[in-house]
Amino acid sequence: MELTQRTPQLSAYLAADDVIDHRHPLVRETAARLASGAADAYAYAKAAYTFVRDEIAHSQDSGDPRVTWRASDVIATRTGICCATSHALAALLRAERIPAALCYQRLADDDGSHPLVHGLVALRLPGTEAWARVDARGNKPGVDAQFSLDEERLAWQVRPEFSELDYPALYDVPHPAVLSALRTAPDRSALWPIYPTEL
What we know:
By secondary structure, the chain is an alpha/beta fold. The protein has a single domain (about 5-195), classed as C8orf32 fold, CATH 3.10.620. About 35% of the residues lie in helices and about 15% in strands. It has helices spanning about 25-35, 40-55, 60, 70-75, 80-95, 175-185, 190, and strands spanning about 5, 55-60, 80, 100-105, 115-125, 130-135, 165, 170. It has a four-stranded antiparallel β-sheet, covered by helices on one side. A two-stranded parallel sheet has the order 1-8. A two-stranded parallel sheet has the order 2-3. It is globular.
């Protein structure tokens, strides 16, 4: 699959905003701590990925009812669904000048029911021309996502027979349907009925 930037300017994938708020002191502090042990951009990107995947619980897995969407809040509370943890990872990458995009999959249950939009991050190391997708939603039994820029090691591979798909677009800001649901829902039980099933 060929990934496509929705915004041609690479600088857009380094920007800070209300969601990917990488100028927030907590994001800066976390990025600086992770960068202190990293020899280069690759090592930093891997450290940031591992931190989000292993230290920020997917709220569905942990049973946490809170809905987070702003990167700094995701890091502060250490909880969020896949799209929220993607916001946190994008912020940490951008904090260290690594272009980061938000991207999405449409996934479903094993019988094809209950489709939903799943959030990922694509990153582009300085000096390279290629984007690589990574999934920091948090591992659990049956899910073994890894940091890999050469061969994707995502949480799930799409199954076309269940109408699952990879969306090729790389967003510099969250998709409006995803962000609207996250901002509107007072808790996770209220989130799922309004959460997008496709883009």
